[in-house]
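name: query_chain
kind: protein
chains: 1
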Amino acid sequence: MAALRLLNQVHGVRVVSPTDDSDAPEADAWAGRPEPGVLLGIKTADCLPVAFCHPASGRVGLAHAGWRGATAGVAARTLKAMGVPAEESLVALGPCIRSCCYEVGEDVVTAAGRGSPHVEATGNGKYRFDLQGFVRSQLLAEGVDPRNIDAIPHCTGCRTDLFFSFRKEGPTGRLCAFLGWEAEGRGA
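structure:
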């Protein structure tokens, strides 16, 4: 039976190792090589889960990227904390709120950078933010091969029949993204 380890997420950029012995480390990402049978997990309900794997070394990463963490670089920090070549890493971008449902204010525009191609004005003083596209761009800038990035196309806001969405549903459940190794030399 696998053990699931979760973070106490704070919408930041702190990355911790699977060897951290805290019950629930205060951080928004894991990076390292977990022991076989230990699953590293994060929870989301519109934020983007970003999973990393470097098969040759067995090192993995898992980041919780809301707009604050994404604009502060949590995905890039996770990749760097893994200590592996970016171009050899595999990345999965999970379900998140997409720009069709993600209306944001000036605070997000400022954090993402004025002129970002991932921010679109709606004409009512609000903006739409492409969270998944923003993080994907950061990973490409870090050297991740675009062929090694897989993304789930669904919007958590549009598909509340499949996913939880805090923005669409208010207080709701959470999705859990997790990864780890079954046994030495076997996949997650």
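note: Helices lie at 67-72, 74-82, 106-112, 131-142, 166-169.
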